[in-house]
Amino acid sequence: MAAEKMKVHAADQPPEEEEEDLIDPMEEIRQNCSEKHCGNFLEKFNECTERVTSRKKTTESCAEELIDLLHCRDHCAHKEIFKHVK
């Protein structure tokens, strides 16, 4: 009988609330930094990417340009990101 009392029917439970999709502020902060503060690095990276993808055989990579862009972006964003940490 104890097992019968433990059963919970769906009709007995309160309706579930829909969860809001969480928005990560870091993505927007990084995007703004890439475009506004690090535009010259973004431009160099995009030029390199176009150059590399236009060739069939190349040993060139855009690793240096990517590292420069990410370093600039993260340096810009770190101050803003921690304002959103609770």
TrEMBL record:
SUPFAM superfamilies named in the record: Non-heme 11 kDa protein of cytochrome bc1 complex (Ubiquinol-cytochrome c reductase)
Cystines in this chain: 33-76, 48-62
InterPro entries noted in UniProt: Cyt_b-c1_6, Ubol_cytC_Rdtase_hinge_dom, Ubol_cytC_Rdtase_hinge_dom_sf
Entry GO terms, CC: mitochondrial inner membrane
Biased composition (Basic and acidic residues): 1-10
Any one biological process term the GO annotation gives: mitochondrial electron transport, ubiquinol to cytochrome c
Similarity annotation: Belongs to the UQCRH/QCR6 family.
Name of this protein: Cytochrome b-c1 complex subunit 6
